Amino acid sequence: MVLIRGILFDFGNVICRIDQRRLVMGLSALSGKTPVEIYQRVAEGSAISRDYELGLLTSGEFLERISVLLGYHFETAAFIQAFNAIFTPIDSTFLLIRRLQPRYSLGLVSNTNAWHAEYTIRRCAVYPLFDAVSLSFEVKAFKPDPRLLENTLHKLGLRASECVFIDDLPENVAGARQMGMHGILYREHTALQASLKELGIES
Questions:
Q1: Are 12 and 110 spatial neighbours (Cβ–Cβ below 8 Å)?
Q2: Residues 116 and 76 in one domain
Q3: Which among 64, 84, 104 is the end of a domain?
Q4: pTM, two decimal places
């Protein structure tokens, strides 16, 4: 039986569900531009979001570039509210984290940015249960770059072979496996429980 000591979770679509349509509708309501126009321009400016998640832009610089991209000057507080409205808690994962926490070291590993971290991730009910947190904008590395997971392993004091990583993107799970971790691709809770049980983890 594999000896698992640490369980690492992605955030988006594992702990909280992401619905980008909420952002599009929110920015449309603020700016008066159509949802289709907002979506197209945001998609075209994906490099801006990536740079923000890599910590290459401050929050102020990010908002300024998005405002230029969309041709509308967003008020900061209103933009932050729309920007964070994309998240909905996945209750089954919250319960799983609470059940695992007394018996395992827990890590949170996410490609994210400063405003999502401040207004959603760090305010999440289960956030205090994590023993180590590695966020892309702080580490300046983006999954599947191994540096983000290595940062978490270092904080936990564990080897890759002692840990499970749960993510909803195949390329991130593959990256974890290449490091020697046990990777689980998240789709829904029942399948996740079955995969954990195969590793001797009762949840």
A1: yes
A2: no
A3: 84
A4: 0.95
DSSP string, 39-98: HHHHHHTHHHHHHHHTTSS-HHHHHHHHHHHHTS---HHHHHHHHHTTEEE-HHHHHHHH
Q: Which helix (H) or strand (E) holds 100?
A: helix 91-100
Q: Is residue 185 part of a domain?
A: yes
For CA atoms 53, 56, 61, 65, the dihedral sign is negative
How many domains does the chain fold into?
2
**CA nearest to 61, candidates 134, 137, 144:** 137
d(C-alpha 44, C-alpha 101), whole Å: 41
Instruction: Give the alpha-carbon dihedral of 46, 47, 51, 57, to 10 degrees.
Output: -90
Token pair of 189 as six digits: 């809770």
For the chain, 203 residues long, give each residue's pLDDT as a single digit of tens: 568 999 999 999 999 999 999 999 999 999 999 999 999 888 888 899 999 999 999 999 999 999 999 999 999 999 999 999 999 999 999 999 999 999 999 999 999 999 999 999 999 999 999 999 999 999 999 999 999 999 999 999 999 999 999 999 999 999 999 999 999 999 999 999 999 999 999 87
DSSP code at position 122: T
- Please answer whether residues 15 and 90 qualify as being in contact, where contact means their C-beta atoms are separated by less than 8 angstroms: yes
Residue ranges making up the domain that contains 194: 6-17+89-198
